[in-house]
Amino acid sequence: MDNTSLSRRNFLKTTGAAGAFLSLGFYMPASAKQAKIVTAAEADQFGVELNAWIHIDQSGKVTIFNHRAEMGQGSYQAVPQIVAEELEVNLADANIVSAKGNKEKYGSQITGGSSTVRGSYKNLLKLSATAREMLIQAAAAKWSVDKATCYAEGGKVFHKPSGRQMHYGELVEAASKLEPPKDVVLKKRADYKLIGKPLKRMDTHLKTNGTAVFGIDKMLPGMLYAAVERNPRMLGKVKSFDDSAALKVPGVKKVVKIKRGVFTAYREGVAVVADSTWAAIQGKKALKVQWDDSGFEHLDTEEIYKRQAKALDTQEGLPFKKQGDVDGILSKASKKIEATYETPYQYHACMEPLNCVAHYQGDKLQIWGPVQAPEWLQEYLSKEMGLDKKNVEVNMTFLGGGFGRKALMDYPHEAAEISKAMKTPIQVVWTREDDATQGPYRPGITYRCEGVVKDGGIDALKVKLAGQNIGHASGAPKDKPNGSASEGFLKPYAESIKNLAIMDVPFETPIPVIWWRSVYASTNGFAYESFLDELAAEAGKDPLDFRRAHLKEERLQKLIDKIESVSGWKKRKKGEGFGVAITECFDSTVAQVVKVSKAATGGVKIDKVWAVMDCGWYVNPDTIEAQVEGSIVMGLGAATMHEVKFKDGIPVDNNFSTYQMPRITDIPPIEVHIMDNDENAGGVGEPGLPPFAPALTNAIFDLTGKRIRKLPFNLAAV
Amino acid sequence: MTKIKLNINNKDTVLEADPQMPLLWAIRDLAGLKGTKYGCGVAQCGACVVHLNGEAVRSCVTKVSRAEGKKVVTIEGLSEDNNHPVQKAWQDLDVPQCGYCHSGQIMSAVVLLREKPDPTDQDIDDAMAGNVCRCGTYLRVRKAIHLASELQKTASNG
Lengths: 718, 158
Ligand code: FES
Ligand code: FES
Description:
The complex is a heterodimer of chains A (718) and B (158).
Chain A: H1 8-14, E1 21-27, E2 36-39, H2 40-46, E3 54-57, E4 62-66, H3 75-87, E5 94-98, H4 103-106, H5 121-143, E6 150-153, E7 156-159, E8 165-167, H6 168-176, E9 224-230, E10 237-242, H7 244-248, E11 252-262, E12 265-274, H8 277-286, E13 288-292, H9 301-314, E14 318-323, H10 326-332, E15 337-342, E16 355-360, E17 365-369, H11 374-384, E18 392-396, H12 410-422, E19 426-429, H13 432-437, E20 445-454, E21 457-467, H14 493-496, E22 499-505, H15 521-539, H16 543-550, H17 554-566, E23 577-585, E24 588-598, E25 604-614, H18 621-640, E26 646-647, E27 650-651, E28 670-674, H19 692-704
Parallel strand pairs in A: 4-5, 9-19, 17-18, 21-22, 25-28
Antiparallel strand pairs in A: 1-2, 1-3, 3-4, 6-7, 7-8, 9-12, 10-13, 11-12, 14-22, 15-20, 16-17, 16-19, 20-21, 23-24, 24-25, 26-27
Chain B: E1 2-8, E2 11-17, H1 23-30, E3 49-52, E4 55-58, E5 71-73, H2 85-92, H3 102-115, H4 121-128, H5 138-157
Organism (chain B): Dyadobacter luticola
Keywords (chain B): 2Fe-2S, Iron, Iron-sulfur, Metal-binding, Oxidoreductase
Domain 2Fe-2S ferredoxin-type (chain B): 2-78
């Protein structure tokens, strides 16, 4: 197994596929909606480049291109598990390599939006089943028997009546000459041997002995290391710099001014290049840089939220959704419930700080790095560096976390610029302080909610939100509401709440913002699910029953029944605080119940978290459990420990000494359940995060009668 | 630049380094052993934990000069075949997600289990609180340490 990428030529060399082979891939004609499955021969004939997802050589070895970056959510595992299932090979015989950034070849490779499995599983299943059928057909032809009397298992084709068998390797040559069948029958869920089973991850052993190569671990011969001083106010330019002290640091070779693109703007920095990371960091500390950061505001956190409040006071906002007579009912109601929720800016804090290796060679650029979106990067760098796209090679390494931040192009761009200036391979390593203080961050958003309760249900609901729109940086129109304004809010509410308005109040600051694990659902979910709880309390209803009454869909009813039973919701006792929240994002719905009690040392403590995930069709329950646990831990940090605060336009906390992270001592027991159904696959890496914060604060209300409407808050101070 | 003699993973090694350089960067950039990770550089995350004469130290705040004449063990040198009881337990329970923090987690856990072969949850919390995992694998870390403790016992009995 190798986690470095291979060009097709190297790939053939490395796999020793000198002889015949069966190689099947997607051919995604621009005009067609459906992937066309083609053999290598067909691809050559039509002059299209083959998407070599699956490659079986004469030794019977199966190689799978892992087209997604691996950043912890287990795509390294899920893709081979899917392929091996329909191809009928043992998982151990399926080797996996990362594919390079190349949209023509591999389709979308962006790891984001929890899309690894949900975006590709149907094509992968079909492709694998097609290869299997071709191998069966080849064997049947060799034996001159009806292919219906043959079956495949464990990398072999068997003839049932005679017991004859042939290894895939012996069949690839004949199979490769066949026309791929148009329609293949996929297996039923009940017949799965690998999918849906808690199989071991294939990359674990690489991560227990230091052999997994992350971006920061990549080395090239002659490579130098760079550290970059960047404007502490994130935007702005270099006015001047003095590098005399930096150049005296042993090991420092050169100092260069460089730029990197962040969305549509360029940001400047001063790079110190040295023969070790540490020397580069020392050189960077010795730099004296004058910044020109005129032209944009230096905001404080308090000011940002004051302005959001003011925007909500004075503006009606753009209607994202408006139905019924919300305003009429709200203005006439004898009793109106109102609440404002504040959610903070958040930092991704991947354990692996940003870094990238670049080797610029005049007409060619090679990149190795922890990147979530290699195809965007290839395209971007070819434009920025003025190179032909085919001469920009993006190699994915393991990612030490991504969470949305590593989909940006700025850190590879910077590496490419430095390599170009130095004419050597370069690795740029961001210090933790650089990583923590440069953004982009998850936007902090304020929500103003109003509601009216009638006959035990919701008569009218209006939510106004003011926060930065991530889409604006990449050109989303500013006169349209944020397209994600209801992310996290369960869709069926829009059917049961006849009078409903969701209004997006435009809000801007110079702080760059970007997706953060579960994106808007991570903030929206807190507001929506907290306010629903407030309305339930007003209606005098049990919070779970109240939701049940508004969510008519059968799939949701089952989810609610499940969380109710596994959490012992109905049997909860006095003095135990129970809170529930249910949110949806990336086509998966997660319900969580949090149980809290008074802590001996003051405040409250979390006793337990129950989570039920409905992600439809799924591959590996063990991965889902791990992802939901991880999402809850990340949600716990964001709800109770940290936020990005700004003072005079500069992020205040720059390392884990003050930006407090959840640690092993903070983690309550977590119990994860998964719904079994055949619905379309949804995401698993993110949807477990949004319900945690509201379930927790709803539980605190249940215990203490106190509503927490601003995140983060201190558990010990409740 | 000074010549610093030390033993890394049972190999006598001479590094030509600025004596002020943290052991972390000497191991990574000069010795080329990239299994030990940089996470914070200020002794807050534990990604860089290695063993210095058997003790768990944060190599990001340990000067390379302090390792002069000493034995350094990194994740690469923990076992021959990735089969230390702690590594086996980690594999058995599929502890890592992104995996970046786990070199440090494993190196911390090894020292804990040497000092307390049968740790309680509280012992684990105390020993592992210095290791941050952004992916949130803590519950599995705890489970795996208990499992490693079992594996260690069977290994020494057998
Ligand atoms: S890198 Fe040494 S403790 Fe974080
Ligand atoms: S597994 Fe990703 S930081 Fe621990």
